[in-house]
Amino acid sequence: MLKKFFLNFLSSFVGAWVALVLFVAVAVIVGIGIVAKLGVAASTSSSVSSHSVLTLDLSGTIAEVEEASGFDYMNLLQGRMERPQTLNRMVTALREAKVNKSIDGLYIKCNGAIASPATLNALREAVVDFKSSGKPVYAYGDAIGMGDLFVASCADSIFVNPGGEVHINGINGTVMYMKNLFDKLGINFQVVKVGTFKSAVEPYILNEMSAPARAQLDTLYGNMWNYIAADLCAKSEDLSRERLDSLVGKDFISYAPVQLAVKNHLVDGTAYERVMDDKIASAIGVKKKKLKYVDVDLLISQTDWGTAYSSDDQIAVLYATGEIVDGGRGGINYERLVPQIVELADNDDVKAMVLRVNSPGGSAFGSEQIGEALDYFQSKGKILAVSMGDYAASGGYWISCGADRIFADPLTITGSIGIFGLLPNAEHLLDKIGVTPQSVGTAPQADFPSLYRNMTPAQRDAMQAYVERGYDKFVGRVAKGRKMPRERILAIAEGRVWDAQSAKRIGLVDELGSLRQAIEWVAAQSDMGKNYDVALYPRVEQNIWDFLPADGDLFGMKLMQELAPEGMGADEMAATVSLLRQKPLKAAMIPMRVRL
Fold first, then answer.
1. For the chain, what is the domain count?
2. Whole-model pTM?
3. Active-site position among 135, 193, 198, 586
4. Sequential DSSP letters for 569-595
5. Which of 394, 416, 502, 514 is catalytic?
6. 412, 346: one domain
7. For residue 34, is it within any domain?
8. Residue 595 in contact with residue 61, Cβ under 8 Å?
9. 17-56 confidence digits (pLDDT tens)
10. Owning domain of residue 518
């Protein structure tokens, strides 16, 4: 016993010291990261050399805007420290590159971008704006995806690897219907809703898509494909819409030799990546050895756009991204967003605001609280515009509809004016596992709603009335905000989702345009002309993760490996590094994700 005690004591003692040593080591790494980052920031303010070319890397997920990151020890151990790409940073870099005299061109690397159609279109429009400067735009990919091709279709020349592929499949969205699964588990869902097209509840109660849900998605995807196809065909007069549809549906171009894409003018030619330097150098009129590439991060360091928090002529751009929730840390938390809106309303330096909405909706209560806060902002005599991203549907439209003007990308998904309630009943599941709940209450409705039994007819009537009151409130807010008769809103509501082009036609959207156009509009309406500054909210609170070198220096990993005792594996090191972990700080549409 005594021997075992001493062994345990010694093990704990050594473990504690190892943890302490590694803690100090990681602190040193972080310190080095801070110094390195600050050093880079200080040295890059004038480090864009002449004859530079901006590289736009279309790879991986493109998020809406940067958010505070948690310290991820697994990424640290594996030497991965890159930040995710964001639309905001990419568009800002393109805008800076357009006017920067040291930037002579743009090189788009098609590496498999993952983003919704509206995000890709916003990026494409930023490339078109850059191209208006007269600077050449070249694109290349080993395997060019449809999203890549959509963004790059406005380039002067697009090249694909001779052994590569060009993928064009049209638009598709898949929703998983799970009634059979829940039947096997012994769970059924009771639904109360308003809106023929309010299909967000369907995956829980059906095994296949209803006719109204399929009809609205057929129309939605068809309109979006028409828009994208028109831009793809605009690359060449020799590529008709009929031919494009034939390439996709009959010729299976995604699996055909790349020469088919060249022949039909979807790309301009084949080339190996090693020769792109020669092509780009020739296009900007320099020798290959003088060609320099710069990335988005370096261009961002050349501009202070979006950081004018101390300006007294400030236009606030407030981001509302994700599902609307009643609490927690993810999505649009009204408990955090409402105080931010009130603070901007009371700030005399903020003259106007653009609310950037990218949300499929969520909590009806949270949506109402945010909407009321936005009303308060406008009551201060300040102009409010909304700029819609990928989605501004259901609760996302609730918080948008009261704005003085609504801007949307042509490929935004919006509308879905409807409300539902979804109550699970796990009575049969409890039967399967031998559990029998017994309740005692002071009234028949004391445990309502219950997870253990279906609603009675009276209870269902009460819930339906509750949902209908919410729908009535939703319709009333839209009618007031859009200055349209209530009857007109009822005709276009019913939970139906619309593409922004259709939404503009029926009055749910005012203008098809970008975030930048929304900013310029509120500036004009506020009599600010061009004498304004822009500040992005919420401000991202930096943590240790944000100070780590962005280029993924492996020094930290090597140092920890040297300090760790023999036999200590990655799991033990990961557990130690976790001491420094820092986490940053239903009205909804059908749960679908549309990707190109």
1. 2
2. 0.83
3. 198
4. -HHHHHHHHGGG------EE------B
5. 394
6. yes
7. no
8. no
9. 434 444 444 444 444 444 444 444 444 445 799 999 999 9
10. 314-537
